[in-house]
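Our consortium's second objective concerns turning raw sequence data into structural hypotheses that experimental partners can test. To show how far this objective has progressed, the report includes one record in full. It was chosen at random from the queue rather than selected for favorable results. The single chain below, 409 residues long, was entered without modification.
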Amino acid sequence: MLWIFVAGMIAVHAFFLWSVRAGIERGDPDFTVFYTAGRMLRLGLGAHLYDPRAEQTVQAEFAKNFDVRRGPLPYIHPPFEALVFLPLTYFPYSRAFVLWDLLNLGMLFGVGYLLRRWLPGLQRASVMEWVLLSLAFFPVFANFHQGQDAILLLLVLTLSFQSLGRDADFLAGSWLGMGVFKYHLILPLALILAVWRGKKLLAGFGLVALADVVISCLLVGWRGVLQYPEYAWRVVSMPALGGIPMRQQPNLLGVLGGWVSFRGPGWLLPVVVGGFSVALTIVVVKLRPVVVEKQSLKLGLACAVITALLVGYSTNSYDLSLLIVPLAVTLDYNFGDGASPARRRLGLLVPAIPLLVSPVWFFLWMRFQRINLMGLFLLWWVYAIRAELLRLKQSGSILRADARRKVHA
């Protein structure tokens, strides 16, 4: 029945991609901004990477429906990421899109391989089976549909967490530093892990992040780097320029502000969301004494990933591809060979089950644009994992107390 469900979800995703193939060919997806940035670097226009007029000129060369847009799709990622897409610009746009999706598929195979090495309980399934399970997940489909880079970040996180499993904290931080192309997600996660693991992880992260800044300066110049924060903030804060409406964000901003039109002072909602984000981050950071053993660390990392998605600004549906890691950790915890019956707590999986039913999210996305409902299940998931971690801590304390009493006797 599981594989019938997986086949059904993949079929739904494939049918939708086929039905929008004309839109993909004319340049509708987000991949347009990556292709534009790579092409601008190739043409020697790095200094104008965030100039709307230059972006418009370049996009008009390959986007067939550009005449119906009010302006170019803006590139708001850091400059160094454009290097990843530069080789793809040697192909026509439609072929580059297909090639990028094939590369994403290859990265999914890499993620499956790494997860099976990091989580022994997952070795019951082959890498191919894990890829099929991933393709049945709605956020992964959204990444393929838009030609986004969330699966690239998923691969980076998996490499980082596998390094943490070997106590290679500096290497783990270095991998995290490579993920700052999505800094709105990686910075909250790096903060949590730096508090948990200490200076080595922070040093690795800081060194690679600094290298990213230097590369960006070489590509667009110091002036471009200094102008970038204001440019990116302006774009993501204004839907008319490409910002994501709150009702389409599966994070705290969407949960708190994505229901009705907000008519209060303009500063009130950001302050409230910021307060809740800080509070949630502190709650997870305080799990530091709990995430000391390898099994509890894995659960803690799952909790940290979900928290980063919730507190991240401008989180989109495809960003939830990172939930592949919490899903894998939860399955390993419940059904791994080392799990005792007391630990087989399906309550950890219940909050994730609704996220797996793609038709529900297709309907809410296309009919109501209510992806923010996902944020409610993410909050529930964080609560469930935190409760299990605290239970593990209490059980460990009881066992240690019993051992001390026996030794004393």
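The partners drew two points from this record. The chain is about 65% helix and 0% strand. The chain has one domain: 2-408. Both points have been shared with the crystallography group to help prioritize constructs.
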